[in-house]
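step: validate -> pass
step: tokenize input -> pass
step: predict -> running
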Amino acid sequence: MLARTPIDTLALSASALGISERERAALCRVFDMLTCGQLAPQRPCGGDDASLCADGFDMMVWQRQSPCGTVACIAGWANILDRTAFAGVGSAAWIFSLSAPLTRLFMPGPKARRTPCTPRRAAHALYAFLTTGEAEWGTA
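step: predict -> pass
step: emit ->
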């Protein structure tokens, strides 16, 4: 099996991405969580199945915490991992301060949302952003 190259080695510099070093590090950690299966698609909470009560991923939710775990999007998870990363996530002031590439990463347009934003698609978009500076939602 080939060794996986860590994303922080492949990613552009924080300045090239137009974000802080802490934001870059948090996004790299989110990428790792998405690709390692730590963030599953959001599922209903409750019942006897403990797998339903876990941290989840949903691009339609900035951050939501419950007794079952936390559900968040890319920006939300980056902020959970490092509270200084993308501080104010989800607020109007934060949204209007985003660069165009970050807007495309954090808020996929209607065309990209025609297909569910799964963790796999999010990892694809995040990888593209970290290595090229542009999110590519595609259909991964």
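step: describe -> Residues 14-130 form one domain.
step: cleanup -> pass
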